[in-house]
Amino acid sequence: MPGRNIDFGKFGADGIKGHEAVARQLDALAGYIATPVTARRGLLARLHYLTRSDRARSAAREAGLTATPRTIRAWLAGTRRPSRASLAVIEQAYRTVRREDVARYLLARLNRDGRGTRVEIHPLNQSRVSPPHQRVVAFRTMNVRRWDRIVAAWAAGDDSALDEAWVDQVVDLGSQWGQYEYVTNIGFAA
C-alpha cells in the first residue's frame, strides 16, 4: 500500500486533494443560493432561509449567527446593513445549515439502496512536469456504495474526517490508489 504524498508538486504537478474535490462536488449538488451575500437579494434569501422556522433559527445560532432578533429584523427591513464580518458569519451559517438540511437527501440519492454512485476521477495535471519525471496516471471510474461517512464529514465541515473517509473508498482502486490522492476533478451526480 503506497503512502501519502509528502512533497506534492515538487516537480510541477498540479491538483487538489481528492477529498477537497469531493467536497466541492457535494457543495455543487447542495444547490446554494447563487446570488452573493453582498447583494441585497442574496442577503435576504440567506436570512429568510436561516429564520424561516424555530429549527432553522436554532441551527443558525449553533452555526454561529448570534445577532439579536431585533438586528435581524432591521437587516430584513433594510434599515440597517450588516458589516463585512456579519456578512461572513451569515454566509458561513447559511452554508452550514444548508449542508445539514440536504445531507440526508444526498445520502439517500448517492447510496441508491446499496447500488452506489459511479464516480469519475480525473488525474492530476502533469503538463508542467518534465518528461523524465512524469508518470502514467489514467482517468478512472469507480462505484462508491458507502457514502455515509463521506456525507457526514462533509455536512459537519470536518476536513480530516472527510479525507479519511474518502481514502477508505479510494483504496478500492488497488495498489495504485496513492496516484489519485491529488486530482484535477472528481465528478458524480445525485
Describe the structure.
The protein has 190 residues and is an alpha+beta fold. Helix content is 48%, strand content 11%. It has helices at 18-30, 40-51, 54-62, 69-77, 84-111, 148-156, 159-170; strands spanning 16-17, 117-123, 140-144, 182-187. The mean pLDDT is 90.
Q: How confident overall, as mean pLDDT?
A: 90
Taking strands numbered 1, 2, ... along the chain, how are they ordered across the largest sheet?
1-4-2-3
Quick one: how many beta strands?
A: 4
Residues in helix, %: 40-55%
Number of helices: 7
Basic shape? elongated
Rg of Cα set? 20 Å
**Distance, first to last CA:** 31 Å
- Strand-residue fraction? 5-15%
Q: What does the largest sheet look like?
A: 4 strands, antiparallel
* Helix and strand element order: EHHHHHEEHHE
